[in-house]
Every structure is written in C-alpha cells, then in structure tokens.
Amino acid sequence: MTEVAPPSGPFVDPTDIEDDVPALFAGDTGVLPYDARRALALVLQRRYLSAAGHPAEWKALLAHQNVLASRCHDMFVELVVDRDYEIAYKRQVREPGLNVPVLLKDEPYKRVETLLMLFVRNRFRQEQGAGERAAHVDAEELVDYALGFLPAGETNLAARRREIDNAIGALVREHVLDEVADGRYRVQPVVEVLLPVERLRALTTWLRGGGDAATDGSRGADDAADDVDDAVDEDEEVSA
C-alpha cells in the first residue's frame, strides 16, 4: 500500500509571526515579536521612524512590513516606507466616497519652522550637489534667515528671537537637525520627505502674497518664493 504524504503548503505551515512568540503581558494575544510591536508603536507615536535612530525596530519593520501595513490599514492609516532615506511614517487614508474616521490630526509645522526647513533643505541639496557627505548649518544662519521675514516696523525682536529659537528646538526634537556642537547642526535627509512639493507650493503661495509683509531691507518674500520654486522644479524633474 502506497503511503500518502501529508499535505504541505501555506495552509498547514505556520506563518513566521506565529512561531513561538511569547506573551509580553497578561492576556497578550498579539502575534508580532517585541521589536516589530515597538516599530509599529513608534510609527504611530511620532512623525517618523528612522533606521539611524532605532536600528532594531527598523530591521523588524522591514521584516514584518506587510503585517504592519495591514495593521495600519485596519485603522485607515497608510504605512509609508522609504528605503532610500531609511525612514517610515504614517499617512491618513482619505478616499473619496469612503466615510473614514480620522485618527491622525494634521499637525502642520508652524510658519517659522517651515521657513527654516526650506533653508536647511536647500543647504542639504547644495551640499549633496557638491558631493559632500553631510550638510551643516549654524544657529545664527537660521536666525538671520528667519529674521529676514519680520514685518516692517517689528519692535519686539526678543519675542521673535524666542520664536525662532523654539522653531530650531522643534526641528531638533523632530531630528530634522542633529546638534553636533554648540549652535551647529547636521541636516538629516528626512527634511526631503517632511517638506514635499505640496508643502512647498503652499509656502510659495504665502510668500507670493507678501508673507508677513517683510519689506525695507529685509530679505524679500519674493526672493524666498524663488527659492521654493527652484526646489519644486528640482523635485518635479526628479519625479518626471
């Protein structure tokens, strides 16, 4: 009598994520390993997860990308993984005709933060074009650039300086800038992702409308808008 071999295939083979995953807490029914769970939680918690900042979680995210993406889709959230820049971030699903509960609030950068991101993004592009491995900016460069957009007749310079310092601090917390020495920062590649063409276009509209009415010796809003237009043109050439 010929023995029939037991069936094999995806229906009987356990999936990788179900292989001996220990419970992490009382009543735990999760099937993802610890680092993959951390990766998912970090993506949901912050603007982005980077390989440089969280190497173990990044490795786990790549290993379980399809499952993590499915977990996000269950919440009408899209997981975006950029392997070139080695970052992952989330995006709210917005589908015409689909009534979707919105979990992710739009948290746009403040105007000063966006202006500084434009400055460091251009610096990053310039250094890349020159073949440099890294781009750096000094705090005073950022301050001088932002001060150029103050309205004519602005008298409360101390308050504006605090606003700019707070914006620099925000970019450091978001790891757009990493402080390598007192008042000197390395620009992280993530600025390319966090300041996409759509945001650049919105910034152009604001600047072409006069910004905050900066005039009389300050850096003109139209000049900065030209910088934005150049950045948009570069992005569109790359994507064409």
What is the typical, i.e. mean, pLDDT? 80
Strand content: 5-15%
CATH-defined fold name of the largest domain: Arc Repressor Mutant, subunit A
Pattern of helices and strands: HEHHEEHEHHEEHHH
Number of helical elements: 9
Structure summary, number of beta strands: 6
Number of domains: 2
Biased composition (Acidic residues): 223-240
Protein name: DUF4194 domain-containing protein
Region (Disordered): 210-240
InterPro entries: JetB (IPR025449)
Walkthrough of the structure:
Residues 223-240 have a biased composition (Acidic residues). Residues 210-240 are annotated as: Disordered. This is DUF4194 domain-containing protein. With 240 residues, the chain is mainly α. The protein folds into 2 domains: 16-92, Aspartate Aminotransferase, domain 1 (Alpha-Beta Complex), CATH 3.90.1150; 111-239, Arc Repressor Mutant, subunit A (Orthogonal Bundle). 46% of the residues lie in helices and 11% in strands. The protein has 9 helices and 6 strands, in the order αβααββαβααββααα. It has helices at 34-45, 55-63, 65-73, 111-129, 139-147, 157-173, 191-194, 197-208, 221-239; strands spanning 49-50, 77-82, 87-92, 135-138, 177-181, 184-187. A 3-stranded antiparallel β-sheet has the order 1-3-2. A hairpin with a 2-residue loop joins β5 and β6 (184-187). α4 crosses α6 (157-173) and α5 packs across α6. The longest helix is centred in the middle third of the chain and has 19 residues, at 111-129. It is globular. Mean pLDDT is 80; it is low at 9-15, 213-221 and 236-240.
